[in-house]
Write the structure tokens for this entry.
Amino acid sequence: MTINPDEGHVAKVRSAGFFTKGAVYMIIGSLTFLATFGRGGDISSTDGAVQFLIRLPLGNILGATVALGLFAYTLWRLYQALFLPGNYGESNGLKNGLKRFRFFYSAAFYGIIAYSFAKPFFMDVSDSKGSTGNSEGGMEEKAALWELLSTDWGKVLIWILAIVVAGQALWQFRIARSGKYMRKIDNYPDIKHEYDFIRRAGKFGYYARGVVFGIISYFLFKVILQHNADIYKGTEAALQYLLSFSYGAFLLGATAVGLIGYGIFNMMVARHANLTTL
């Protein structure tokens, strides 16, 4: 029996996942944009978005709700990896293998993010400070990198991770330039008045993601070449790194707007898209 991803429970899961993913990017982008121009907020990452939510009334419940939405997105990516719905199965074996890897990678990535949103609900840390959570997460990542640097196979694994993240950055730029991301909603004539806005939001968003992934891969390559895990910085530091350039505030502000645009784009995908072409 073939499951149609545009009907029933599968459609509901994918829509919830994309809407929640969009909301998270909008929170990160908005907090970063406000911080860039001294209007409050904070140069932020997923951890910052988690801390922002849990400080709100019923924050732990909000965080758990976001976690469920991201878990739905994780399930959708796993579904794609396993079944290659729609026109995905029409390629040759090598291309299908690469697609499966990309979907599994995406599922793992967002599964970890879903866990970070769910954790406060189960650990009752609504009174914790945002800086504590961020520093603990960064310490865990650096400890893991130090452990990997201590072995030959670990160094190889870091090289692979750095190359994968760099490839992800290039992939984001390629998608933005080609405009292929609009295939998700090209078959929906009812959005003709919103089409140009969605296209610009998506393009700017994919470019912004490419910048962030590119900086993170740069940090990972430095970790290997200088044999120093303390060099590694996450998403938040990758955004802060933009401030080290001339017109850094402009670059950071533009990237933040791009992340907001990516969030809007994902929400529109949740509403309109034929995700068999995603």
